[in-house]
Automatic annotation (TrEMBL):
Subcellular location: Membrane
Originating organism: Solanum tuberosum
Topology within the bilayer: Multi-pass membrane protein
Keywords, alphabetical: Cytochrome c-type biogenesis, Membrane, Transmembrane, Transmembrane helix
Record bears the keyword Transmembrane helix: yes
Superkingdom field: Eukaryota
Coiled-coil zones: none
InterPro entries in the cross-refs: Cyt_c_bgen_Ccs1/CcsB/ResB (IPR023494), ResB-like_domain (IPR007816)
Entry's transmembrane regions: 113-137, 178-197
This protein's name: ResB-like domain-containing protein
Ranges for region Disordered: 53-89
Residue intervals of the ResB-like domain: 119-379, 433-530
Amino acid sequence: METLKMSLVQNQILPLHFKPYPLIHNSRILGVYSNKGRTFSFTLTCKLNTVKGNKPSKEKSRISVPGSDGVAPPVVESEEGSVGNGGRKVEETKNDVVGFGLLKKLPRKVLGILSNLPLAIAEMFAVAALMALGTFIDQGEAPDYYFQKFPEDHPPLGFFSWRWVLTLGFDHMFSSPVFLGTLALLGASLIACTYTTQIPLVKVARRWSFLQSAETIRKQEYADTLPRASVKDLGVILMGDGYEVFSKGPALYAFKGLAGRFAPIGVHISLLLIMSGGTLSAVGSFRGAVTVPQGLNFVAGDVLAPSGFLSTPSDAFSTEIHVNRFSMDYYDSGEVSQFHTDLSLFDLNGKEVMRKTISVNDPLRYGGITIYQTDWSISALQVLKDDEGPFNLAMAPLQLNGGDKKLFGTFLPVADDNSPNVKGISMLARDLQSVILYDKEGKFAGVRRPNSNLPIEIDGIKIVIADAIGSSGLDLKTDPGVPVVYAGFGALMLTTCISYLSHTQLWALQDGTSVVVGGKTNRAKGEFPDTMNRLLDQVPELVESSSPEEPNILSGL
């Protein structure tokens, strides 16, 4: 055992050298530290593990004793002349490196791989390719459709058969494991890039320091010297231009546009919101479509079908929806311009909770369910036959050769005992405006408008078209990801605009009657010198007083 004394000379810690004993594996060292009349003692216990036959290392050890007054480390000047918080390095032992080094390196290796820019670009191209493939392959069809569309005997591209589509889930591309996995990998790359690159850049940008060397300031992207100027006057000019200004003695530091450094993080977060919202829409929504004749109703939960494993029904699924009336608007040419549906919503007690007339691009929203007007058809004609009825004749859609025109038809049988084939009156309609009638021989008989009550006689039978009953084509959807996607796109537009802000840093140093100015910026580098020249031209020049008896007076703002 040995007692040692150490002292502090000129605020520097003196290294303590000791010679270890070769045969001692456990030793205790007592020390006494004295500074400005204050003394404390400490004990160091050292345990040396050596292999038999090997002598312990005789390398010199350095023991650092912190200040006893508990104050922060002093401010020191760095190699480049900047002033910041100084600190002492703490050396790790060999056991620490072996025990924790691998655990610290493993996550960083993973982060380094995920934040690799070529990998992120490849992931973006993969997502774009899968989305394009999803638009090429019809989604949500029955397996028989893909058997015919992608046969094995003549597959597209020579290999892309229905087995690829159904096995990889490309019939539901945007909820398939391949697409969601690629999207998750891209999200992980964005998070890793934000953590390893963008956040450290922001931390660095937020640090500010004074440069005490004129030579260091002259090495900046832009540098100039004001021969007769004051650094305080420069600070006032910079503050007027929106800079945050800090000064310490003859040194000055100023910056502006720090929000531009935060913008890339906001862009990444926005993209993550968009991808998260899209994923939530793919695996947590309900969708359904129904065509309902005027006057009938249906239950929302009977139409909606889940799209993924996160789809959870709500209380609104028990809502009963009644089609009060269906109507259409027309152009002067007679073409359909718009169609409307008057809907009433009833709860389990039969109470009407909402009523609205919807149209294309004007949906109804209730309890998280959105009802869209998407299509229309004619379900039936109400016909009076010889003043009897009305009879409801179901209308069927007829296939036309090409085009998107619609045509519906029905048939009113006419008894004929002498003919083995049933004959009757045919009725065709393009829309709800008019009905074209043909006799039992297929000859044109006339045109009547529904609700006109104008009779027409065909083959001795008086026919009146009482009404044409339309059917409303409705799409129902619950999509919890829509607000997230909208928020992501809104944030993306905002942060993209903010990212164009230049982050500019300026340093200045009073060197006698001259001021050395230097600075740098991350954007608009070509315009930066002109902007700086404009600012520096506003700095007033120092002049001497005309009176010889008065000392030199520095005039400024």
